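[Help] Beginner question about ligand-bound structures

Sorry if this is basic. My supervisor gave me a protein sequence and a SMILES string for adenosine-5'-triphosphate and asked me to "get the holo structure". I don't really know what that means in practice or what format the answer should be in. Inputs are pasted below exactly as I got them.
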Amino acid sequence: MAEPILQLKGVKSGYAGRLVLQGADFVAGKGELTAVIGPNGHGKSTLLKTISGIVRVSEGEISLKGKRLDTLRPDQVVAEGVIHVPQGDLLFPGMTIYENLMMGAYLTREAGSVAERLERVFTLLPKLKDRRNQVAGTLSGGERRMCGIGRGLMAGGELLMLDEPSLGLAPIVIDQIYEVIFDLRHAGLSILLVEENAERIMDQADSIHLLDNGRFAWTGKGAELMARPEIVEAYLGA
Ligand SMILES: Nc1ncnc2c1ncn2[C@@H]1O[C@H](COP(=O)(O)OP(=O)(O)OP(=O)(O)O)[C@@H](O)[C@H]1O
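Answer (accepted):
No worries, everyone starts somewhere. Holo just means with the ligand present. The predicted complex, written as C-alpha cells, is below.
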C-alpha cells in the first residue's frame, strides 16, 4: 500500500444515545482510491461525518498525514485538506453553478488560489464550465453531482470524500460520474468513497473496506472480495 494519508484508530462516534462507529480501525493510502462498502445504516455516512468533524469522536483517534483531526472543528478539518461531498449534493438550488463553486472556496482568502482552483475544476469537469451560469436547481442529477464534486474541489484539499456518488442516478450517468472520479484519482487526489454497492469500483479501487455495524469487518481488493461469495451474499445482497 502507498503511504497512509488517513488513519483511524479505535474510533467510536455517534448521536445522542446511539453509538454508530464502535471502534473503527482504518487506513487510506495517499493517491489511492479507497472504498468503504456495507449495508444501509451501518455507519458509512457517519464515518465521513466523523472524519469531517461534524460528528464528534468519543473515543479513538483520526489523523491526516500524521496530524490529529479529531480535536479540530469542521472548518479546521477542511483547512487541513479534507473535502466532504455529502450524500445528495446539498447544492444551493437558487444559485448558479459558478456561485455554488465559489461557495466551496469560502475559507480561502487569496483570490489567486481561488482563480487557479476554478480553472482546475473547469479543466477536470468541462461540463461545469459550459453551464457555469445555469441555476443549480435546473441541473440534471448527473450535472448536480458533478457540481457537488466541483464545489468540494474548490476547497483545495487533497483527500476527497464522496458519500454515495451513484445514489439516484441512471446507470449510464453513474458510469460518467465514475469516469470523473477515476480521472480525479489519476490527477493525484486521494479518494475515500462510500458506496452501498461495490460493483462499479471493484476493478478500480486500491482497497475495499467492509463496514459492518460500525466496525471494519473485512479489507481487501476487488478480486479478493469476489473470491468470498459468503461476504458478497451476506453484505452486498448478490
Ligand atoms: N442525526 C442522526 N441522529 C440520530 N441517529 C442518526 C443520525 N444520523 C444517522 N443516524 C443513525 O445512525 C445509523 C448509521 O447511519 P448512517 O447514515 O451512517 O448509515 P449508512 O451506512 O451511511 O447508511 P445510508 O447509506 O442509508 O445513509 C443509522 O441507524 C441511522 O439511523
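A couple of things worth pointing out: The chain has a mean pLDDT of 91. The radius of gyration is 17 Å. Feel free to follow up in the thread.
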